[in-house]
Amino acid sequence: MLPYIIRRLAIGAVVLVVASFVVFLLVSLSGDPLAQLKANPHIPPAVIAQRERLLHLNESIFARYWIWVSHMFRGDFGNSIAGYPVGPILWGKLGVTLRLVVGATLLSVMFGVGLGVISARRQYSVVDYSATFASFVFFSTPVFVVGILLKQFLAVRVNLAAGKTLLYTLGQQSALLEPSFGSRLLDYTEHTILPVITLTLVTYPAWSRYQRAEMLDVQNSDYIRLARAKGLSPRRVLVRHILRNALIPVVTVIGLDTAAIFGGAVVTESVFGWNAMGQFLLTGIQQIDVNVVLAYLMLTAGIVILFNLLVDIIYGYLDPRIRHA
Amino acid sequence: MPDNPGLLGGATDPATGAPAPSTGVGGSTAPVEAMPSPESFVDTSVAAVAARSQGRAILRRFLRHRLAMASLVLFVAILLLDEIGSRLWPYTYSQLTDALNSGPTGGHPFGTDGVGHDMFAQVMRASLTSIELSLVVAAVSMVIGVAIGALAGYYRSWPEAFLMRFTDLILTIPILAILLVLSRQAARHAGSWLFIGLIIGFVIWTSVARLVRGALLSLRERDFIEAARALGAGDGRIILRHLLPNAVGPIIVNTTLSVATAILLESTLSFLGLGVQPPQTSLGLLISQNQGAATTEWWLFAFPAIFLVVIVLCVNFIGDGLRDAFDPRQTRVRA
Amino acid sequence: MDDALFSDDAPLLEVSDLSVTFSSEDGLVRAVRGVSFTLEPGRLLSVVGESGSGKSVTAMALLGLLPRSAQVAGSAKFRGMELLGRPDREMMAVRGAEIAMIFQDPMTSLNPVYSVGWQLVEAIQAHQEIDKDAAWDRAVHLLDTVGIPEARQRAAGYPHEFSGGMRQRVVIAMAMANDPDVIIADEPTTALDVTVQAQVLEALRTAQEVTHAAIILITHDLGVVAGLADDVMVMYAGKAVERGTVEDIFYWPRMPYTKGLLGSLPRLDASGDERLRPIPGVPPSLANMPPGCPFMPRCPISRPNCAEDEPVLRPVVGGGHLAACHYAEEVSPGDELFAPISSDAEVVE
């Protein structure tokens, strides 16, 4: 097991190094981060020269990459163009983004697996057809359209009916937070519900289709026929044999989609005006702030790699045919 | 079931719908077996006839798929409307009419925006851009995907290593983030939609490549390939004439679905301001520009959004119908 | 099981006029078209036929394992209790306990994620009030009985760690677990290596000795039948076309189809120049069957009236020997009805 984990982490590290270099080149070459500064005639050339020195813009691109790498080894992500350290800010934003990503992943698992199972058990029923149609529609709708619709229609209706704001549509939390833990939790929840639903609605369809197909495959398999021929109850056949086996491949698919969920979170956060990792990335790209963009990529990629490793370990545990030597 | 799970293997379903070639001459173990049927002889003419009739069977199954057929008709209708309708329509997408903030009327069926753009002209133009862009993506990703997938599946070695590492990259970093970084360059290219199409194509080819690789891996050791090799066929001929035709189903299905993915990605990039740039327009851009109007001037948001969802939905249904046509496993009767 | 449902003097298993119909894209598929037979305690009945002749569907229908879309008609009584149309809840008590089943492909018959011991214990505990440890001991004992070496260690192993033959033994052990009265074995050796087939059949014979169950052995391999069966039923296109004792069928086949089957079987006792005589043509499609004898297009002795009247299964030469052929009396053991396979030299010309 341990050699396997080490090997996987090593491959992941190589991917990270290559990715960081490529992205470094792409972002650095996409423009001059000080262009605006230089365009301003009121700024003396000495200031610009100083900024260029601070940002190492006068050095070669490889030297600049090496400076970034040395920052990484020291455990920080360097400074942004504006001069503040990237690391501490990013960690704070990570917590906010994880609220959305973890919430949407959990809800999508429940929705995807649940609907997939129901669809497969009632194949070709009204329920199956409706679930299939709904997943096709959500699968075909961009995240931001779902978000805007929920924001403009659902939230307004619910808040109107409740007579107060239950679902917030802007920001990840209220500006003025009460200090008590309970009220903060409530405030977070009220801000997080709509974004989580948004991200869930575009994430669950693929998983539920996959779960359904897997269920049908397992249901028609020989070992399920034998399990029924043994005289087991339909419930036991469903839970201990069909579900147990049909869940295995879906676990892998969930792992493979982690990066996509982070991508969806960027858009969702943008729709709901969250000040979190998505906005961090977007401003980084717009301002040609290499350290900011790379910090985002390294952090999400690191999380994706670790999560997938976890998924693989779970997979090996679920399926005795794949015990990692 | 994927036997090589996880990030570094990928859950492809290789060769679904790849027609299985006959097993070869003789060798029937069952004594009750009837006389060998004609298909069991390795004979290219017979195989060609079988392939042709199989093609017809696939076409027939697709034509019978009502939802997919309806989607195809609707998709073509939208395309024709965009292509021809926009030429006949009195307003162009960039023209400023005198009607400001008008709701849907006879003259402006989709209404107008605050500066007088005719939304019908805009939506037609935007959906045409989105569709054309997605076709560029499909073409680019299919060509790259089939080429690298075929090399990886047939020769293994470095093309396979490249494919696998690139796949790792795609699965590790959000595709959207990669595209955002790449499309930053597009801002300098005056928002050329073609550039956006190319970069999306250069990023999403891996799924086709992995499918082709999977199909070739399972096919290349088969008897009929041995036979072709024994007859002196070169590698290129084996790949093009014997292996790839067997993977046509998955390739077509996947390419179709990549059209849908491309439209979604493009609209998302445009929504975030890093895709198609004004003065060009796309559905994502229109929605982005009008998102605040969803409840007040609903037509500004509703029509682009409906067109976007309907187009993607059509493509997905067509892809689904093609998948069923190539891989008709639904009716299983054990005898 | 409620004993009041059973009657002691009723036959063990009595199937009459069983028919199964599926609907498919090509119309109704009549997979089984009126099959009747009786199974006596402790006997081994072999059901023989080509794939698609309705053998497996018949077996699945008895245990109610067909998909819901299948329309099943007729009657199948186990000790006087009707099995067909019985709700799933009640069939649970019959499956595995009274009638056990062994399937064709041992590679896919066992759930890959549980150990074989676990799966045996599950089968035992489905019908017996017995604690886990005792059930595990019984599972090990069963594995030992069917010839799995070092059964105690192997019980903890997973199916993928067993060979095909070993897996089929596990399935046989599972069938024995609750001392059933009937074991249905559906092509138990077809998917296996020839060298392993005999061992698995031996395990099946052991299962019969231990449980005293009657066995229905479904196969397309007459070679398997010869050494094991008491009675034989030959099926063709969803119908029984000949039925009798194993001697009747092997020495005095009365249906041209049976004769064809025997002719396509390699024989060790054949003299040097005797060649295999396969049946030309293919079985008819079960959708939209034409009237008349389904074997007629392939039959060497057919006459015009065979195209109109489908022959019924009727006694020939007295006793229990039945055949479905208008001209059964004309089929005699000596004649060869089918042409032999031509030798290689003749093919080359």
Description:
The complex is a heterotrimer of chains A (325), B (335) and C (349). With 325 residues, chain A is mainly alpha-helical. Chain A has a single domain (2-14, 93-323), classed as MetI-like fold (Orthogonal Bundle), CATH 1.10.3720. Chain A contains 13 helices and no strands. In chain A, helix 9 packs antiparallel against helix 10 and helix 12 (277-286) crosses helix 13 (290-318). The longest helix of chain A has 39 residues, at 181-219. Chain B has two domains: 6-52, no CATH class; 65-326, MetI-like fold, CATH 1.10.3720.10. Helices cover 64% and strands 0% of the residues of chain B. Chain B has helices spanning 44-64, 66-88, 119-155, 157-172, 175-188, 193-203, 206-219, 223-230, 235-243, 248-271, 283-290, 298-326. Residues 1-47 and 330-335 of chain B have low confidence and may be disordered. Chain C has 349 residues and is α/β, with parallel strands linked by helices. Chain C has helices spanning 55-62, 88-94, 106-109, 116-127, 132-145, 151-154, 164-176, 194-211, 222-228, 246-251, 256-263, 344-348, and strands at residues 13-24, 27-39, 44-48, 71-78, 81-82, 99-102, 182-186, 214-219, 231-236, 239-245, 314-315, 322-323. In chain C, the strands form two sheets. Chain C has an eight-stranded mixed sheet with strand order 6-7-8-3-9-10-12-11, sandwiched between helices. In chain C, strands 2-1-4-5 form a four-stranded antiparallel sheet. In chain C, helix 4 (116-127) packs across helix 5 (132-145) and helix 5 (132-145) packs across helix 7. The longest helix of chain C is centred in the middle third of the chain and has 18 residues, at 194-211. The relative contact order of chain C is 0.13. Chains B and C meet through loops of B and helix 1 of C.
